[in-house]
Amino acid sequence: MSVIDTAPAIRVRGLSKSYGDVHVLKGVDLDVAPGTIVALLGSNGAGKTTIVRILSTLLTATGGTAEVAGNDVAANSVHVRRSISVTGQFAAVDEALTGRENLVLIARLRHIPEPRRVADELLTRFSLTAAGDRPASTYSGGMRRRLDIAMSLVGDPAVIFLDEPTTGLDPQARIDVWEAVRELAASGTTILLTTQYLEEAENLADRIAILHDGRIIAEGTLAQLRALFPPATREYVERQPSLEEIFLTIVGSADATATETS
C-alpha cells in the first residue's frame, strides 16, 4: 500500500525511562509511517509495554521525545489521546454486557453520534453480528479479543497500539485476530504491535524493530533483517532463516558484544 503522507505517525527520539538505578529504556529511536504495521519484538522485560505506555500518555518518560499523530506526548497529551486507542494484553470488555452494549457504552463515553449505528457497523466488520446480543462472558477467547479491538476503533483513531494482543489465544483465534489487524492497516490505520510471537510479526508487520537491553538494536523489513545473515546455502534445499533465528542471533550478538566491552 502506498503512503502519501511522509511524516511519521509515530516518531521517537532518544526515549529513556528509569526507575531509580534501573534503566528500562536507554535511548530508543523509532519511526512508524502512516498506515503501516510495525512490530516491536523483545523478550519479557525488554521494555515493549513501557514504550506503549509512554506513547499513549499513561507514563512519563525520563528523557527523549515522542510524537504521535504530530503531537508531542508530553506537551499535547490531550490531543494524543484523541488520536489513539490502546488494546492491552488482556481484553478490556465488560463480560456482564452484550457485545453490542460494550460498543454502545464506549461510543457514548467518547460522545460519538448514533452509538447504536456505530456498534452495528463494528459488529459486522468483526463478524460478531450473530453474537452481538449475547453476554460477552459467553464469547470465546478469539471473539472477546475481536470485540476488544472493535471497541478500540470507536471514534476512528489514527493510531492503534496493540500490546501483545494474542497472548493466551489458541492458534485459530490468533489467526482470526491477525486478519482483523490486516484489515485495520488496509483501511489506513497506523499500528504499533508488540509481541513475543515471532510468527505474528513475520505474518503481519511491514517493518520489524528488535528491542533489547533498552535499545532498538535492529530495525527494517523482514527482507532487510534476513540480509544480515550470510546468503542461503544450497544443499538439498535452499532455506531462508526464520524470523525466530534472526531474532535469537541478533540478541545473542548484542549480549556477546556487551560482555566483551564490560
Main sheet overview: 6 strands, mixed
**What CATH architecture label applies?**
3-Layer(aba) Sandwich
| Secondary-structure element pattern, one letter each | EEEHEEHEHHHEHEHEEHH
Output the CATH homologous superfamily. Answer: P-loop containing nucleotide triphosphate hydrolases
Helical run tally = 9
Poorly predicted regions = none
What is the average of the pLDDT values?
89
What global shape is seen? globular
Can you give the helix content as a percent range? 25-40%
> How many separate structural domains?
1
Cα separation of the termini: 44 Å
**CATH class value:** Alpha Beta
Structural class: alpha/beta
Quote the beta fraction. 15-25%
C-alpha Rg (nearest Å): 19 Å
Strands ordered across the widest β-sheet: 6-7-8-3-9-10
Key features?
four-stranded antiparallel sheet; 262 residues; Rossmann fold; six-stranded mixed sheet; globular; alpha/beta
Write up what this structure looks like.
The protein has 262 residues and is of the alpha/beta class. The protein has one domain: P-loop containing nucleotide triphosphate hydrolases (Rossmann fold, 3-Layer(aba) Sandwich), CATH 3.40.50. It is 37% helix and 23% strand. It contains nine helices and ten strands. It has helices at 48-55, 77-83, 99-109, 115-125, 141-152, 171-186, 198-204, 222-226, 243-261, and strands at residues 10-19, 22-32, 37-41, 63-68, 71-72, 84-87, 159-163, 190-195, 207-212, 215-220. The strands form two sheets. It has a six-stranded mixed sheet with strand order 6-7-8-3-9-10, with helices on both faces. A four-stranded antiparallel sheet has the order 2-1-4-5, with helices on one face. Helix 3 (99-109) crosses helix 4. The longest helix is centred in the last third of the chain and has 19 residues, at 243-261. It starts with 9 loop residues before the first strand and ends with a helix. The relative contact order is 0.15.
